[in-house]
C-alpha cells in the first residue's frame, strides 16, 4: 500500500514537471546571470545599467513573441517624474574633506550647515529607529544631522529614492512639498564611513535643483483566446540599488536574488504561456523603481482597470530555499483571498507546497509591487522564498548569483506555471481582496 502511494506521488510530480518542461535550468541561469552581471551596475533607475537591463528584457520578450501593451509602441512603458537632485555636495569632518554619502531629506534646495549648538546630532545604526525619525519630522526640536552606520549601507538607495530624491508626478506637487518642508525641521543623513566623535567639527553644503527623471517598466502580453478582456499579471521588479559603499573591493549591488530572480521568472513564464496559450489575457511586466518608492508598479497599476484584473502573481526573491525547505514558497496576504488554495489545488500530487507568509511582522504584503492593485481589491499577491529575517546578503554587494540555487529557482518557476493554470485558463477566479480607503 505504501509503495503504491509513493509511486502515485512520484508519478504526479513527474507529470507536473513534464507539463513545465519548457522551463530549463540552463536558461534560468543564463538570464539571471545576465541581469545580475557587474556590467548592469546594480540596475539603479536613471543609469546606463538599468537601461541595458531594460533592453535585455525587451529582447527576451520579443523572443517569446509577446505583444506590447495596448497603446504602447514597444515593450517600454515610459513615464517621467520630478525630483530634487544635488548639483554640488561638500562634507568636511574635523577639517578634512570627505566623500561620504550625504542624503538631505525633503525637498529643500540648499543646505549650508556648520556645527554649532543650533543642530542636534545623532548616531543611528538601526533601520526602525531611523524610520521613526524620517516619518515624524514634526517631533524634532532642531535641525538634525544623523550619522548612519554600516548596518544601514544597504538602505542608502532606498533612503535616497524615498526620502531625499522622492519623485513627484508634477512640478506643482514638488513645489508644494518643498513649501510644507520649509515649515518643519530639516534632516541630513551622512554615511559614517569612519567613526565621528561628537566633539568633531563638521560642515555640510548641498545645492539641489529640480530634475526630470525618466523611468520605464518593461511589459508585454499574450491576448487571451476566449476571455481577452480579463487579465492575469505576472510581475517582478528589475531595478536594484546601484552602487554602494565599497566592501572588500566590491561596490556593485548586483541584486541577484532581489530581484533578478523574480524578473527571470517573469521572462520564463512568458515563454511558457506562449507555448500554452491562455484563455485570459496575460501581462508580463518587469517594474522599475521598486527600491526607490514603488513608482513603476504604481504607474502600471493605475493604468489598469482593477475590475478586469483577475489576479496578480508578483514574484520577488525566489533565489534560495524558504524556511520550509525545498519545493516550497510562501504567499504574502495568503489569508486575504483563496488565491493560495487555488494554486495548491493545481499542484495536487506533487511535493511542492505554498505556505502563508511566515514573516507577518515584516508587513511584506503592502511592501512590494502587488500593493497598489491589492488596495484596489485585486487578489494581488507576492510569491517569495526569502528568509528575510536572516539573509545576510539582503541589500548588500554580496547579493550575487553565486549565492543562489538555480535548480530550486527553476522548480519554483515550474510550480508557478502549473499552479496558475486554472486561473490563466479561466476555470478559477480568486476571491477579491477587501479594498483599502485611499
What does this structure look like?
This protein has 12 helices and 16 strands. Helix content is 30%, strand content 26%. The protein has 2 domains: 18-67 and 223-424, 3-Layer(aba) Sandwich (Aminopeptidase); 84-212, no CATH class. The longest helix is centred in the middle third of the chain and has 20 residues, at 256-275. β1 and β2 (96-98) form a beta hairpin. The protein is globular. The chain has helices spanning 2-19, 25-35, 48-63, 127-134, 156-164, 171-181, 256-275, 295-302, 339-346, 371-375, 406-419, 421-424; strands at 76-93, 96-98, 102-104, 110-114, 119-124, 143-148, 187-191, 202-222, 227-237, 242-247, 250-253, 280-287, 309-315, 328-331, 353-356, 380-384. The protein is an alpha/beta fold and 438 residues long.
SSE run: HHHEEEEEHEHHEEEEEHEHEEHEHEHH
Number of domains: 2
- DSSP helix fraction: 25-40%
CATH superfamily of the largest domain: Zn peptidases
Q: How many strand segments? A: 16
Q: Provide the β-strand percentage band.
A: 25-35%
Class by alpha and beta content: alpha/beta
CATH architecture of the largest domain: 3-Layer(aba) Sandwich
Largest sheet: number of strands, sense, barrel closure: 10 strands, mixed
Total count of helical runs of at least 4 residues: 12
Write down the overall geometry: globular
Give the end-to-end Cα distance, rounded to a whole number of Å. 56 Å
Mean pLDDT across all residues, rounded? 91
How big is the Rg? Answer: 23 Å
What top-tier CATH class of the largest domain fits best?
Alpha Beta
Oligomer kind: single chain
Q: Which residue ranges are poorly predicted, with pLDDT under 50 across at least 5 consecutive positions?
A: 1-18
- What fold name stands as the CATH topology of the largest domain? Aminopeptidase
Pfam family, one: Peptidase_M28
Protein name: Peptidase M28-like protein
Signal peptide: 1-20
InterPro entries: M28_fam, Peptidase_M28
